[in-house]
Amino acid sequence: MAALLPLAAIEVADLRKSYGSDTVVDGVSFAVQHGSVTGFLGPNGAGKSTTLRMLVGLTRPSSGYATVLGLRYPELSNPGRRVGVLLDAAAQHAGRTGHEVLTLGAMLMGLPATRVEEMIELVGLTPAEARRRTGTYSLGMRQRLGIAHALLGRPQVLILDEPANGLDPAGIHWMRGLLREFADAGGAVLLSSHLLREIEVIADELVVIGRGRIVAQGSKHDLLAAAGTFVRGAGDLDTALRAAGIEFRPADGGGYTSPAGAEAIAHAAARAGVVLTELRPADGAGLEDLFLQLTADDAREDVTA
Amino acid sequence: MTGSITTAVAPTQPVTTGRDGIPFGRLLRTELRKLTDTRASRWFLAAIIAATPIVVAVMLFAVAPKDLTYNKFVDYTVAPEKILLPALGILAMTSEWSQRTGLVTFTLVPDRRRVLLAKFMATLALGLLVIAIVFAVSAVGNLLGIGLRHGNGSWSFGLAGFAEITLVQIIGLVEGMAFGMAMLITAAAIVSYYVVPNLWSVLFSSTSSLKHSANWVDLNQAAGNLYNQKITGTGWLQLLVAAALWILIPLTVGVWRVSRTEVKT
What we know:
A: 305 residues, alpha/beta, Rossmann fold, 6-stranded mixed beta sheet, 11 helices, 13 strands, 33% helix, B: 265 residues, 12 helices, 77% helix, globular
């Protein structure tokens, strides 16, 4: 796949959007590669949705540019066949049935009607649910319908804004499997979320945005590694660590997290004769700290679920 | 869910540009379908279409036999359509914005003017169908008038009559579409369409200094001359000027707004 598609699937370069003196997106740059799932993470109001809208041509950037599959989105011919987009699952005509929504999409993209049934089955809507008007749908059902719509045209790229919103844990698990398979088959996924936990289990790459600016980006692995090491031990572990000059702080529920590597901590414990009961890379908590810290000023209290 | 996830979602299309675009015919068919695929839109269309036989039925009972002519039937049956067709135009143009489906539509077809053109043509086609029904059902009414009440039954109408009635109806429909595009919000478009031109008419017909120019700037009046089937050369010119004012201006504003307005989530 990479040989066939040398360009990044999505490229965003110094994208800016201002409304009057209010700059909502402020010089955002990142790329999404084929075969990967990139999480676009940030608190509500950080500029995620505006960035995604600029990416698909619904909002004009004040400056900078964005390309999908090497082209500006409006230059793609029949874009639904290349890029699956779900920006707001709730934005459906309440009087249209789920089946009708997909039928309209299939008609426009020039797809056979059988594709509609395939997608309904794929996202786990029952035929009876598909025949109901979307006004009666729960948010989770709307998300499933939206994902079915995004996948209709067999795209190579998926752009999803808060797709896990309203899904139950089983639904999130299902979506993770779906997006993983899509990426493993060479597809590129960009999905946004304001919840670290949600995106952490799905994404390979992370782009963290706060107040319109990118505050961190890289592979989830690297960002997690930057979170340091978790250690728990029997006996006077903190004295041992202090003696070795290792920085640390108590973690919730006992134990310590430290920016030092596992080996340095093990040596320090061995020298002091302290038995370690747990020694491992610190998990998402570190990333969560990073996320909270980097976006603390921007985080809004009114998290809309 | 199923075992076919991979085959269903696996990317299959190579990157190409400029090919395999969406033909206009397909866009037009989709827009036509969107006009008739919700419960509300079906009821509205049913009401528009049912208005004609209802008026005909009432006329068969209420109008004196000597007045039961084709001309009279058409005259009465177009009256409700003159009011309802503009509403059809408004709804057709505002629904992407009021129902927020523009998010999907303009993502699938980034060239919004193309979407507008398809909507325009689809609504026009539906409008012409409604007018054809008016002419056809009026003919049935006239036959029934002859058969049931020994009505006058005159068919005198003339080709120009068909053309002029159609034009008046289409003017209303297009004016509605233009207002819908310019406003983008259904309620605002409905209110401004039904209130502003009428206030304008009142102003121009009641103010003596403005009265003589009413035919030039009042589309109701300028188009009304068509109804009476006695339009002159000046009348046509007045119609053109009034149409420019009430259709061309909102239409231009509308196309500009639809192409520029940010589609928000």
